[in-house]
Amino acid sequence: MKVHGALRVPGDKSISHRALMLAALGDGTSRITGILESADVASTAEVLRRLGAAIPPLAPDITVDGVGLRGLRAPTDVLDCGNSGTTTRLMAGIVAALPISARFIGDASLSRRPMRRVAKPLATMGARFDLPEHGGLPMTVHGGALKDTIWRSEIASAQVKGAILLAGVVGGVRVTLDEPAPTRDHTERMLGARGVNIATRGTRIDLAPAHRCIAALDTEVPGDPSSAAFFAALAALADGGTLTLDEVCVNETRTGFLETLGRMGANVTFARDRMSGGEWISPVVVRPAPLRGVRVAAEIVPSMIDELPLLACVATRAEGETVITGAAELRVKESDRIAAVVENLRAIGADASELEDGMRIVGAHEPLRGTIKTYGDHRLAMSFGVLGALPGNDIRIDDPDCVTVSYPSFWSDLTRVARP
Ligand code: S3P
Fold it and tell me: Is 413 tagged catalytic?
């Protein structure tokens, strides 16, 4: 299999969610181009509509008239977040700062995911929460007046950080936040670009209070590095050719996978010399090369958290052992991504084992064959989809449609760039 040509992957999911939320809270009209048109982002759009914001149907070029920082209203119905953790946790932060109550629900996977991680800090700030015993959904948030807060987070999570910062901005309070390791910083960048006084020093973030409004601002959503990663992996594992991934967001907090692929021996190039809307954007060019196993530990995990299932798949074709540690967060994603990835790797004949906080994979050359149980997890479907595109492998995915959560055109893009 050879790769060829260029591909522009769909817009970044994290930036798309935030662009909609900040446009809804903005003072005036914001234009958003290149938003990700996927099920997760549609969940955020629908939740904002239920809170009174006029969000048009998702399209390549939309404009949103903001209702203002405190203009969202009590919803007349539940807020259905579908499969989207980012929608739930960030919107919980916004609701926490308003004099309204809202009940958040989601699909079976989202309903199992931990929400105390946002409920705890937001309750310290002054909101009230009704949570089921297991700490997931349905969750009711009773917002209200918040107070200045210093919060030292025990979990490296951009969703937790984003929830606290958005609550701080909407509530007009001072927030000092420390995270155990730097996580994706789109919330900070996007708030700063809209006139909010926010400063970062290492893992510490200071948000100043007393904003009456946030500026409306146009956003060009760059390509999602987590989506580009699948094609970077495909190109690295191909027999020949060159693949160019255009306009990828190469923010330092998102490029752990590309860097790791380079450490494994692949030929990966990108640059940080063009910035748009506060984000580095670059073509990423990948050429195949023989790969060797690699170690991935806690320091680099947050910058490639969503790409670890893919890395595990790539590792089956690398020489020697790959060990991922410090990644216990994988157990509370759309599926338990440690258990599910290892189970599926074994099901297709790969050598893989679970660690409490990661996994170990030994590469080989034998063909991989069998059926993948995705557990409805989009990233599992796409990671194993890449392995399935390699010659000799015969891999079926039980639920290929679950990719609509983050990358609806994944399968057609895969057929387009991979040539026998
Ligand atoms: C995201 C943060 C990460 C990531 C998710 C998107 C975000 O989750 O896995 O896909 O947009 O803030 P955590 O905050 O749970 O690590």
Answer: no
